[in-house]
Amino acid sequence: MDRVYFDNSATTRVDDRVLDAMRPYFLEKYGNASSLHVFGHEAFDAMEIARGQVAAAVNAAPRDIIFTSGGTESDNLALQGAAFASASKGKHIVTSSIEHHAVLHTCQFLESQGFKVTYLPVDSEGFVSEEDLKNAITPETTLVSIMMANNEIGTVQRIKDLADIAKEKGALFMTDAVQALTKVPVDVDELNVDLLALSAHKFHGPKGVGALYVRKGVKLRPLVYGGGHERGLRSSTENIPGMVGMGKAAELGIREMEESVDRMKAMRDRLIDGTLAAVPRAYLNGPPDEGRLCSNAHFRFDFIEGEGMVLFLDMQGIAASTGSACSTKSLEPSHVLRSLGLRHEQCHGSLRLSLSKFNTMEEADYFIETMPPIIERLRKMSPLGEGVTYDVPTVH
Q1: Which of 46, 89, 206, 269 is deepest in the core (most CB within 10 A)?
Q2: Are residues 228 and 235 in contact, defined by beta-carbon separation less than 8 angstroms?
């Protein structure tokens, strides 16, 4: 195979139907949604249709959807906005140790502004303990932020149970659902969340556009001031093509979700079972089938550097990653894997494969055939182990 893309947690290809929906708003209906003429009305109407599509995908009211530039801005608006708006009630925030950097670095910024942040540990599969959350919340806690699905190891948290605990104790609950939408059911009422972050390019929409669900009555302080767009929470001329693309991608993703999830789950299981059978000293990071994203297979291999695996796979036409695309240029081990209790060298021997609806079982089989000789070659070169050679099974 010429090219296989197994890095869909980093970004996904835009669905052709999404691109078709966006095209008129670049070339023909390119007005500013705040203008009073026909061009402006066309843009405004398209924006509100897209808002309704995104709202429907998470069972929200359209007015509760705020468009942003992506998941990072949504996380920042939720965390900073809620923290500063509620500072008079308390300045304590609870999050987990395996959040995306968009949450962790924002929490670190808030600490520099006088807030206290508690970072909850996780177990060996990446799950937050409900008991730990109960014990962490104090009368000063105004916000709890726990991600719905982890971008590295695919752990899907029990968000409703965690949100119920926070709400019972009077704190707002926010979740980063960037990796979750179209892969697991996302219903803001059923989950009992107050704030929920999304990003279009994770479910076959365009880059540069995202959304934040804000439950009615929740107060946020804006990050950006200007013309008062998006209910005064996100001033800027609206990115109409991006919004249209996000709305269409959300609509398609929900409509086709059952079939897509079944296909991805079958490919994921083939990758996991085939790799663990074909490669000695290979292990799965994160939970088994239950509690794991349908699209995620995350391995670690003894005596191997992850960067070497990624480069050798790339030479064979397979795109994979060692972890989050936001931190792959860092030499520091993944904070997510360290939180699981893995040693430094185990973290560096990890590989993430992430699937989309466009992947095929043939691609999964190609990976299973390609990986063993790569591992054997890298182990011969490795200073981490004894350079042991292995009998590599033939995979058909």
Answers
A1: 46
A2: yes
